[in-house]
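Listing S7. Sequence submitted for prediction.
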Amino acid sequence: MILEYSAKTDTGIKRDHNEDSYGLFPEEGLFLACDGMGGHAAGDYASKKVVETMSSINKEYSQKLYNEVEDMYGEVPESGRRVAVQIMLANRRLFRLAVMYPKLRGMGTTLTAVKFDKGFANVLNVGDSRTYLFRNSALKQLTVDHSWVEEMLQDGEIEEQELDSFREKNVITRAMGTNPGVKVDYKGVRTRKDDVFLLCSDGLCGEVSDEQIEAIVRRGAGDLERISEDLVVAAKRAGGSDNITVVLVKVKEEEPLLEAINPNKIITVEEKDGVLDTIDEYIDSYIPPENTRVPEGVERERRKLYQSPIFNTLVIAAIFLIVSFVITRTPPGDFEEATGERLAAKGDILIRTDPAGAEVTVQRLDNGYQEKKNSPADFLAIEEGNYRVTVAKDGYERETINIFLRKGIQESRRVELTPRRQIFITLGSNPGFDSTEKIYIDNEPYIYYGRPLTVRRVGFTGKRINVAEEGKHMIRIADKQKEIGTDSMDEVIEVKIEGGEIVIEDKAETP
């Protein structure tokens, strides 16, 4: 595929340093834009490290990673899966660096990426950096922001006209480097000759409206250098409150589409069982955190006195002498709890689940240690190492996460369980109910993210109502109600609100 491209980044007017980064890798058809966060010590480092990591993955070894996800995300084309794995690896590397270096904790970055291949474009994103498509003189946003304000818009909590006055519109709900794993949104787009793809940080789209961006791209008449310059100037004239990054890619000729894609569907890709272990193996072999260059003044966490091997040896010896002395004067059985395992304890794993009461199993992968508790579950004073945590509850999907526990660290996780039965409710073109009407399940208002679900909050994307128990359930809106049967596992009942009625549509199997 023949591509033309241009990119610019600017500090803006109100910032004194630039935390944005971009990557141009035309020989691979890969283009990136990142918006770092974390201040002087970490923001620019995070965004640059993600670009560096994604561009330098060892191709031979990384095939093992690609093979692991090949069958996991069948709807995503091979080239898209490969970029998703690169993003997962870059995220994991960033997270492990933050664990090792206290001054880097809290760093992160957004990412939007486009990978061109075989007549289509793979579009992936994490956070609120965006990718647009300019085609036939019209601009279309391809990505969906992972931000609080976007979620509230989708839920009907705020209206478009309220955006300018919304204080928390810069709060993002996904970022790279802030968690051990990352969720990546994927979308496939068929490419056409003269298509222009625009990747940008929110320093552009947060200052300049989509209508203004469209006019600037149209006025540029395909001159990418001019367009990128004009977009940066427009963002600075509008206030320049943030760093500004623009990447433009133009498709010079159309190619035949060799792989089927679904252009109207966004697919969320995330790590599944075993993938993080393989990613950690790659990182330890090729880019270990301890050998990675960090900003000047950033140092590894100093070992506390109690973490010193010599100190621990002396303490254990002293305890051994004390226990031996006491045992000679105490009847047998009184000290069965005083085991060496407790003395060798290194860290804690805390697991909370939604809903509570799930069975939590923690298993160490190298020595067979296993322990079960009901959530909320605290596994205290256990040794450093790789652990697999499995969460199970009747009526819910089993969840598994991997945790690398370091000595002196307390790892806390909250696991949201997915019911194996759901009601997927959508709005028709004419719902026929007042938008403030609440939706009741079994005569109780259904609570969605802390507030009752209303007709307006269902929104154009629809909402999934979790129903863990099998049997009959009653859905009611105003004076209309409908009985719904959920008698089998892995079932989704599709319901549409249309013309003042509750319409049950064909059942669909959970993907």
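Caption to Listing S7: primary sequence and predicted structure tokens for the chain studied. The longest helix spans residues 78-100. The chain is about 25% helix and 35% strand.
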